[in-house]
Amino acid sequence: MIDVHISPNGDDSNPGTSAAPWRSLAHARDQVRKRRRDAPGDVTIHLAPGVHRLRETLLLGPDDGGDDGSTVTWQGADGAVLSSGFALAGWQRCPVDLADVPAPLRGRVWFIDLPGGTTVNTLYGASGSVPRARGPAIKPQRCAVEAPGRHPQLLGPDGAITDHSGFSHGESSFFHDRFAFAPGAIRPAGDLREAEFLIIPAMQWTMNILAPRDIDVANGVVLLANPCTYPIGNPPCAPEGSIWLENSLSVLEPGCWVYHATAARLYYCPKGDEPETGLEAASLTEFVRVEGVHEIGGVQRHVQGIHFTNIGFTRSNRFAFHGLTGRGIQHDWEMHDAPSCMLRFRHAERCRVSDCRFSEGGSGGVRLDLACRWNRIERCEFAQLGGCAVVLCGYGLSRHYCNRDNVVVGNHVHHIGRHYWHCPGIFIWQSGDNRIADNHIHDLPYTGIVCSGRTLYDRSGVAECSATIDWSAVDEQCGAGYVHNVWHYGGLPSWSMREPLMHSRDNLIEYNRIHDVMQVMGDGNGIYISGAGGGNVVRFNVVGPCPSPTMAEGIRCDDDQHHAILHGNLVFGMHGHATGITIKGVNRVTNNILALPLRTPDRGLLSLEHGPLNGAVIKRNIFYTSAPDQRLVAEMRYHGEGRKARLRDTDADGNIYFCAGDPAAGQAWLAEQQSFGVDVHSRCVDPGFVDAEAGDFTLADDAAALTTGFQPLPLARMFAAGRSAG
Fold first, then answer.
1. What's residue 599's pLDDT?
2. pTM for this one?
3. Structural domains of the chain, ranges and CATH numbers in brackets
4. Which of 193, 430, 591, 701 is the most core-located residue (most Cβ within 10 A)?
């Protein structure tokens, strides 16, 4: 057993004992590596209280782990924190006539010069993150169709503009790489080339942070340096404007800052007379990378047995990426195999992150990339982060099913996605056989949990995920030259042919509590499954309340998704579309409670959105509403091709459909379904909740639902998520 110690007040010339600790993590890594050559076995590296500062990513490889079955534990004492923040000292007051600054702030702006090449996109103070200067919302206008410079990769074979999701917009005047704006929406300023634009495009389920290539204020047009993921338009979630100008002195306000990268100069307008003490910028997006070797068809030596426990991670830079790179994973919500989280595992096995706190960072929390197996993330808190809390990201469509068998359990995820608003709390992409359980997820700008393998089959490598595809495997599995467009529904046979390459399979998502999500973006969910393999089980989760006006579904099996099991979930208190569960394929929906939308939706408590649904199972669910005009089940063909989805094509029975506001309407609807030979044992009757209006969905002892075969849900356990590892 080896025990060594690190302290912010230590010295690397010390022996590394508790009385005379080392100072740097890198020195501790190197010394432990040497000692273990002579004395293999378990190691504990103790981090003393205080801030341990990193200016370079700490790299841990196979020699730093326990491939002999031992463990190497980086254990923090209470108050031990890793930070990439560096102090800002030597502020100077700017001249009163500093250009571009709003007149009321003249003489109140300070600056500091940093080393050339420094990237600053986050700033921190005593109260946490300090906001970057941001202007009011801009409502994009239509550009002239004949405008020059149209991005050649955005043109379809017929010359029509496409967004690489399969939507074709014809000769639309909304573009990926430009937008027009009304007079006065952007003021002339000399530093506009230093600015960035936060953009929610026409498809309201993603956003980009993009720099301009040119801004023509006189003619009201912005050309972007990189194309947006989707055409720039007016999404429903941002009716007053969906574009925000940041990082220009022209939109500076007290308490905000601007960084001019060309001059490496940081400007700050304090709320008081001078900058407060303790301001820090961040230098890293990735603090620690645990990386083994996994060469496809070659050398494999994974890192094993590295544990992190009771350590704080804070003050990271924002990882910068943009749309249409081909390496963005579904809708560019995250990036494939990228340093976008403070702690990253790559080709790692049997590692653990426990009782850690990831907070006040521009990047995300923890990633498990590519060949990661048998790892655990447990009892951690993720708060005030710029990106996702946890990302499990495997190989793209291929035979390489290497990201699997991981556990994410008992974590508290809240107030994340502060920079990239589309980031889900927990993001599983091309990763399977994982257990995601007992997590408490709330106060997010977008979706709680995503389980996805959605990929656009773009052989040019531009569309989302397409650069991750092993085309030789696709051609071998599906035929030479195969191309699939998920927006044109191919049905179960097409999915079954491709399913061996879709690795988000057999995941168990259970006992998670999700509420107050979808606070900024549109068309998102509590739990989302799309383009994944079969066998995913979503059971005993609570989703609700979610009062967002842009909430879509509590739980959704979206495009290109079959053979998922949704069982025993409670979905209640939805707003927006107010849909409890949506399925767009042959999936099983059993023993769920879908209840109490906050307003009458335009879709049903259960929404069936692609047909045919022969083979789908809808059994022993409770559909309960008090709204007299609430749809119980919606049947539609939402987009693409294929037959309209119909309940009569499913194996539906033993359900309770009850509208307290109009029981007769519910009975009439059920009678119609029974005339088609489905739901023959279903009932239109009060299910017997103790007090549904007050949020108590316990069934009374004499509840009618108990006569249909409905099994009471373990509600106490379901609402306890995040309080124990389970």
1. 58
2. 0.95
3. 2-84 (no CATH), 86-133+252-282 (no CATH), 325-337+360-719 (2.160.20)
4. 430
